Amino acid sequence: MDRRSFLRTSAIGTAAAASTTLAAPLYAQGNRTLTMVTTWGRGLAGVHDAAMHVANSITEMTDGQLTVDVRAAGELVGAFEVFDAVSSGQADMYHGADYYFVNQHPGYAFFTAVPFGMTAQELADWYYHAGGQELHDELGQIFGLKSFLGGNTGAQSGGWFRNEITGPEDFQGLRFRMPGLGGQALGRLGASVQNLPGGEVYQALASGAIDGTEWIGPWADQSAGFQEITQIYYTAGFHEPGAGLSVAFNRDVFDSFTPAQQKICEVAAAECHQWNLAQFLTNNGAALQQLVAGGVQVRSFPDSVWDAFGRASQEVLDENMSDELFARIRNSAMESMAASSAWIQASEGTYRAQRDRVLG
After folding, report:
1. Considering the domain boundaries, does residue 83 fall inside one?
2. Residue 20: Cβ within 10 Å count
3. Residue 59, number of CB atoms within 10 A of its CB
4. 20 in a structural domain
5. Is residue 125 part of a domain?
6. Whole-angstrom Cα distance, residue 146 to residue 130?
């Protein structure tokens, strides 16, 4: 049995075992407190806000019948342990970025972001109207989870570097923090890729343990303080063009909710997706201006680097196509992206180009 099959079998087994401890008698009628573990350090701009927002929405909309207790990374389990904690029933739900869990199944990357993948709007189009949510649910069933999109960072930055990137060869031996399939693609260019929780990135960069990092975008990056360490900043990246965040419930816990409570959880997650996206986009512009005023040098990768990113990304995506569920998720996402993108470019793309031309 290969490792992925073992992980699936183990997840199903632990979910089945959890069902014996999370049966209906444990959750009788009345108010309940749900433990939400997260992949975010407490106070991380935007991402921890999203976890708190969806938790508060569920608590308020159920009049406290479901009270969500948020535990940040490290307070109950580590950032990358939340998946197993919820799958096994040690915690009731998590908020995080599902691409942290590609070792469980590579298909999870699509519900955060894949390199050269969907923008935030394209992700929402696929998720809510072209089969994405159903595929997220099918994937979650393997591991005893019920998942929803529950936040979005918008397009993420290319990252912070100690030295300017002039060609693909500059990634050779570079110690760089980047999770998900984007990180795997960067590894194809010779980078030593690190997958660090958000709360550990500043210290790793400051100490020299890594040479560079991506995080999110100007607002979150400024809040994290990366400009105190290096001032070379690439504002466009290939790896996360519209990164979705997820809320996942232990499936037995979710199934024990009333239909009204289940719908409230679904609606709260969807509302948080839009609320969080607007939060990031509202704050990024002003933060970038402040970074530039403070001496940060804004850079763009040359075309040769973008071409190398593209080749490496296709290799990483293609090598997972032997997995039937991954293939279905990828094909569904790319078909939806192509359809959405064509109209967005023909309508909004043309309009924005003309607006910029007319208004200067």
Report:
1. yes
2. 9
3. 19
4. yes
5. yes
6. 19
C-alpha span between 154 and 140 (Å, rounded): 24
**8 Å CB contact between 178 and 141:** no
For residue range 271-309, what is the model confidence (pLDDT) as tens digits? 999 999 999 999 999 999 999 999 999 999 999 999 999
Alpha helices in the chain (DSSP H): 3-21, 47-61, 82-88, 120-129, 132-142, 180-188, 198-207, 218-224, 251-255, 259-293, 303-318, 324-344, 350-359
CATH number of the domain at 44, please: 3.40.190.170
Residue 169 lies in a domain: no
- Antiparallel, parallel or unpaired: β 244-250 and 212-213: unpaired
Task: Tell me the Ramachandran region of residue 151: left when phi exceeds 0, alpha when psi lies from -120 to 50, beta otherwise.
Answer: left
Q: CB of 49 within 8 A of CB of 279?
A: yes
C-alpha 86/C-alpha 69 separation (Å) is 14
Tracing tokens 């469980």 back to the chain, one arrives at 104
Please give the span between the terminal C-alpha atoms of the chain, in angstroms, as a whole number.
61
H or E stretch including 36? strand 32-38
**Number of structural domains in the chain:** 1
Q: What DSSP letter does each residue of 304-350 carry, written as one string?
A: HHHHHHHHHHHHHHHTTTTSHHHHHHHHHHHHHHHHHHHHHIIIIIH
- CA 259 – CA 265 distance, rounded (Å): 10
- DSSP states along 205-232: HHHTS-SEE--S-HHHHHHHTGGGT--E
Which residue type is seen at 1?
M
Q: State the pLDDT confidence band at 29, using cuts at 50, 70 and 90.
A: low
Q: What are the C-alpha distances in Å from 39 to residues 82, 162, 302?
A: 7, 27, 33
The pLDDT of residue 360 is 82
Rounded to 5 degrees, φ, ψ at 86 are -80, -40
pLDDT(344) > 70: yes
pLDDT tens digits for range 162-178: 999 999 999 999 999 99
Among 13-22, 81-90, 96-105, 222-231, the least confident range: 13-22
The domain of 277 spans 1-151+244-360
Greater model confidence, 11 or 187? 187
DSSP state of 163: S
